[in-house]
Write a structure and sequence with these properties.
alpha/beta, 10 strands, Rossmann fold, four-stranded antiparallel beta sheet, globular, 257 residues
Length: 257
């Protein structure tokens, strides 16, 4: 019996037609994601990481192969799959609580339960007291916390994170990484992160999936068997980073420099 949050990607391919020519974006992608796990997708630009996330969340149904959530084929968007983008995409004319509440607009819940759920998730991301603030009154990090709350408020089985920290300064990014780990442990939700930051992938994930181009495909999966909290300066952390970069084709030996 499948547990909630079990994702099975089988032989997935995706292509576009550009000026009458076929452009293959993904080819023969196979990936199994266990319930409650945290995996990261890394790879060079154009390898199809974000495209794969769009297929999982249901924003694009035109692909070959199968994407199964809990044994059922993914079709269209649903509250069982949340997503957070690099841009927080908060509507500027709505307050924080109204923006988060938008995710429950079509949920079959009583209004008082919707309000209670929104309040719980505002507290979860550490924004209690900012319920009536507008997006322009929030810092970049606070806005991304709000976006994470919006992604989680529908209690999805999987939360997809598409470069959610990419636009933040280094210090805010590190702080938000800690917040994401805390939220993951609290919610016990399956998380899939797309990032260009190999350090971030190793620090957050229990598995790193390396993709490459020509067309987009998975070239390696590496388990991150490092204790939490992780120290980025340890030999084991640095060695795993080197392995990931090698499989991305971006590692250059110091003696060749």
């Amino acid at each position: 019996m499948n547990q909630r949050g079990s994702l099975d990607i089988r032989n997935v391919g995706k292509h576009y037609e550009v000026d009458g020519q076929r452009l293959d974006v993904l080819d023969d992608v196979d990936l199994k994601v266990e319930p409650g796990s945290f995996i990261s997708l890394v790879g060079p630009s154009g390898c199809g990481k974000s495209t794969l996330l769009r297929l999982i969340v249901g924003l694009d149904d035109e692909y070959s192969g199968e994407i199964l959530l809990d044994g059922r084929r993914v079709s269209g968007t649903s509250l069982d799959r949340g997503i957070v983008f690099q841009d927080h995409r908060l509507l500027p004319w709505l307050t924080l609580e109204e923006n988060i509440g938008l995710a429950l607009l079509n949920a079959e819940l009583p209004e008082d339960e919707k309000r209670r759920t929104v309040a719980e998730h505002i507290a979860l991301v550490g924004l209690k007291g900012f319920e009536t603030a507008y997006p322009h009154q929030l810092s970049g990090g606070m806005a991304q916390r709000a976006a994470i709350a919006r992604g989680l408020v529908g209690r999805p089985e999987i939360l997809l994170l598409d470069e959610p920290l990419g636009a933040l300064d280094a210090l805010t990014r590190v702080r938000l990484q800690e917040e994401i780990l805390r939220i993951w442990r609290a919610e016990k939700v399956t998380m899939i992160l797309v990032t260009h930051d190999v350090d971030e992938a190793i620090y957050l994930s229990d598995r790193v999936v390396v993709m490459n181009t020509g067309p987009g495909r998975i070239v390696r999966e590496l388990d991150v068997d490092l204790p939490q909290p992780r120290d980025r300066a340890t030999h084991a952390f640095v060695d795993l980073k080197r392995q990931v970069l090698e499989h991305m084709g971006e590692y250059v030996h110091a003696e060749a420099a």
